[in-house]
Amino acid sequence: MIEGIGSDSNIYIFDDVIVDTGTGENMEYTMNGIKKAGLNLSDISLIVNTHCHFDHIGGNRYFDSQLAIHKEDAPALENGDNIATAAYMFGKSLEPAEVDFHLKEGDKIHNFEVIHTPGHTIGGICLYDGETLISGDTVFADGGFGRYDIGGDLNMLKESLERLAKLDVKYLLPGHGPAAHNGSEHINLSNRIIKTI
Questions:
Q1: How far is 72 from 160, CA to CA, in rounded Å?
Q2: What is the total count of domains within the chain?
């Protein structure tokens, strides 16, 4: 885990995969994190974006790697859509990017399975390997969950959290904030809180 600084999302690395790349505004810090993981930039062959927002995809341009994102969020990257990616909120604009893999529910990335969890965005995903959940901005530690007013949908987010609450999650690795042990407890809390909205 490379903990997000500034507006950057958290970044996760396993095998030859990097999950989310932050805004790209703090690349020296990100590169140092990659080196601490015992890797070089050239070792990363695949970027997986948990969703299309700029604080998770802005750093993609620094990697010469294939790119994977859910098929519902892919057009935002392919079209360089500054609204759908929320780049405009960061005072930035995006060049269109080629997406190599349009992910869908059930796809596998090494030991992780793609779970489509719309709500924060329509094409948000989580990655789950049976005990660890990389959750993007769908769910955070301590009862948090993603905002749904930037291309998202509250009812979809409620359904996604309900699905995640059925998983046995030991480690919760969210898109922002601290990672958490006993991940299911944090997800269940989020699920209970969102039902009050």
A1: 15
A2: 1
What is the predicted pLDDT for the residue at 17?
Answer: 97
- Asked whether residue 6 is assigned to any structural domain, the reply reads no
DSSP secondary structure letters along the chain: -B---TTPPPBEEETTEEE----STTHHHHHHHHHHTT--GGG--EEE-SSS-HHHHGGGGG--SEEEEETTTHHHHHTT-TTTT-GGGGT--------SEEE-TT-EETTEEEEE-TTSSTT-EEEESSSEEEEETTB-GGG-B---SSS--HHHHHHHHHHHTTS--SEEEESSS--EESHHHHHHHHHHHHTT-
Instruction: Provide the pLDDT for residue 159.
Output: 98
Which residues does residue 13 pair with via DSSP β-bridges, in sequence order?
18
The pair of three-digit structure tokens given for residue 106, joined into one six-digit string: 């059930």
* Any domain includes 5: no
Give domain status of residue 114, yes or no. Answer: yes
Structural domain including 174 reads 12-194
Q: What is the pLDDT of residues 117-176, one digit of tens each?
A: 999 999 999 999 999 999 999 999 999 999 999 999 999 999 999 999 999 999 999 999
What is the domain-level CATH number for residue 118? Answer: 3.60.15.10
- Specify the pLDDT at position 82: 98
**What is d(CA 191, CA 175) in angstroms, rounded to the nearest whole number?**
17
